[in-house]
Design a protein that fits this description.
Elements lengths: L4 H7 L3 E3 L10 H12 L7 E7 L3 H8 L12 E6 L4 H18 L5 E9 L3 H10 L5 E5 L7 H10 L2 E5 L11 H14 L3 E4 L8 E4 L8 E4 L2 H12 L4 H8 L7 E4 L2 E4 L2 E4 H10 L1 E6 L3 H13 L6
Parallel strand pairs: 1-2, 1-13, 2-3, 3-4, 4-5, 5-6, 6-7, 7-13
Antiparallel strand pairs: 8-9, 10-11, 11-12
Amino acid sequence: MAPLKAIAALLDGLVDYAGLFPPASEDMRPALERYASYLRSADRKALGRFIVPLSRLKELEDAGNRIFPRDSDSDPWRLSVLVADDVHAAAEEMIDFNCRHLARSPAGHVTIDVAELKASTPVEIESQREVIPRSFTTYVEIPTKGDVSPLIQALSRVGSRAKIRTGGVTPEAFPPAQEIIDFIATCKREGVPFKATAGLHHPIRGTHRLTYEPDGPTGKMYGFLNVFLAATLVYSGEPSETALAALQEEDPSAFSFSDDAIVWRDRRVDAGQILAARRDFAIAFGSCSFREPVDEIESLARAARPRNQ
């Protein structure tokens, strides 16, 4: 079956691979090997960056020596580095990494182009952006409780992007739906692109096991289709109340897919709207699984595809 334009627009570069992180918590070499295999797969266009903590960057280099692409015809690996501590030291280490790999391969087949940080005040956001070179795109994870406007306004001033944590391995890690919509709406108002992370393995909101352990906890997880459809609605000018309802939708039969649109109940979101929102606003989400979200959305789209498509 040929891929649908609307699904292709939704999935393009959507999943940043975070296999090193819970609940998968893979070792470095298997995670790199999986990423390499995904880049060779039929679904490679859905794959975004490989996410690695700064503290494991040397481990990544050592484990990846025989895995990284080397020929000029290969697409470069793009890395997103999580910065937890000394921002000055992190900036130097990321610059050194890129210089080393550019020297080994003029095409720069392994490169860091994104830094992910955390901040809880406008001052932190501004000071971090002063240190991280502009050659790196910066995402800043911010708390979503209360009024996020001052933080997102600070991100807008310094040219950084926002990051929201949409789940975790415990039920308490999932923020209320209204907090997510307030975050998305404020990002739209301030012209700040965003990414999401955690708890988005499945397309549609529902109750799922939060880890891969047989006796692990279960809880209500947001669906990545819900999140990015809600963001597209906000970006297209729909009211926040509509986006909130889309975010909380749990009925798979409420969605249908044609070549050029995703339809949720009485709202038709065409491929052009999805493409624009994904390109300029709702950028990606981090997931410790790549196959799970991609396989599930493709299965859902096949089941809900009109018979004449």
